[in-house]
Amino acid sequence: MNRCSFATRLANAYHKRPRGHRFTSSSPSLSLSLTTDLVNRLSRVDSSSAPDLDHAWAELRWLTEHVLRRRTVKCWRPASQVPPALLSDRAVLVATIDGDGRGNDAGHSRVDPFSEAEKARLQRMVDDRVVRNKPLQYVLGSQPFAGIEVRCKPPILVPRWETEEWTMRLLALIEDHISTSVARSFSILDLCSGTSCISLALAFNVSRRFPDLNLSVTAVDTEPRAIALGLTTRRHLDLPETVRYNALQASVFDAGLKDRLKPLALDGVFDLVVSNPPYVTLAEWAELEPVVKDWEDRKALVGKVDPGNSSSSSSTLSHEADIAAGVGYYPAIARIAKSVLREKTNESLCPKLVVEIGGDHQTQGVSQILREELGGNVSVWTDLAGHQRCVVSNDS
Ligand SMILES: C[S@@+](CC[C@H](N)C(=O)[O-])C[C@H]1O[C@@H](n2cnc3c(N)ncnc32)[C@H](O)[C@@H]1O
């Protein structure tokens, strides 16, 4: 994968949008309204491409829903019960935002028009998008991910669709494994956990399917704000008592990490380790779009040489060392996995280690690292865009 397409892919996390028709000032019933103004402004968020009206309408709907969620008493219908389909009717959206009293009745559903304070709030959020180029997930404060709502706050990395895709794929394998296993407990370790999107989505979905299973998920990240965000998401999830969520502020390069981890697994050993570590090279970082560089933590994205193996700092690397630094986290991750994973006696349907990679250019190097450290068989998962996305270590 070349660097350009990599940069585009990261930026696409914010700009995945269908191309639609262009707005014309002759659109009926929309002239000179606040809604028209906001749609026009939102259609220009991505200044590198032509205005996108359909996406602007979709964003406006999400922002409006967000404002409505704050309502407690004033809504004829509780905000949490406003059906999304209602606001996807543009006439209802216009009536709600502009408060002109038209169009907000749809059958037996109704949304009260915005107050002045709510209009001001909506305008501030649109300013954040348009003027400050703030990612939508940071404006809304959350992102749906594999069935859960993950809290998002700058500068903690916004979960990407590729990660969600492989998490769902892994979930199916975990469920197959548990259905055919006699064990009544399962422990998952998530290294470089960020928002804890992977571990909490797995915990939520597995516990729904197997309510009697004892489940432990442990999220590890160096960044205290990531740990705090994971705990907030966990608090708002309806997880049963059978699920234990541990959030540990630590580095995968800490020599004593494995000794801190083992007591957090249910039987002192983990059944599965997952990781989406920083893997971007300095050259790739230089080409990323401002929306990524301005808002997301550089340390969440840029890989670095294992400090145990090199004295170079990641800001002074040669080209070759920069390429190597892109995969600098994987040896440490594989070593931790080796020291905390359960010794499998039978062939398992579930992998023992799944790591996300930056693309095809890292497959060979990471596969070799996993093979040397963990043995067994190594496979590669490709994402929906056709890029190699995960290297997976299996038992046999
Ligand atoms: C690419 S982000 C992934 C976040 C999350 N797992 C996801 O998929 O959205 C990498 C994360 O690794 C964390 N990190 C960076 N260096 C680390 C280290 N040495 N040990 C543990 N976590 C680290 C960053 O703070 C960041 O949250």
Automatic annotation (TrEMBL):
Instruction: Give a GO molecular function annotation for the protein.
Output: methyltransferase activity
Q: List the lineage, top down.
A: Eukaryota, Fungi, Fungi incertae sedis, Chytridiomycota, Chytridiomycota incertae sedis
Which species does the entry assign this protein to? Gonapodya prolifera (strain JEL478)
PROSITE patterns, per this entry?
N6_MTASE
Superkingdom classification of source: Eukaryota
Carries keyword Transferase?
yes
A GO biological-process term? methylation
**CC annotations in GO:** mitochondrion
State the protein's name.
Modification methylase HemK
- Which keywords are on file for this protein? Methyltransferase, Transferase
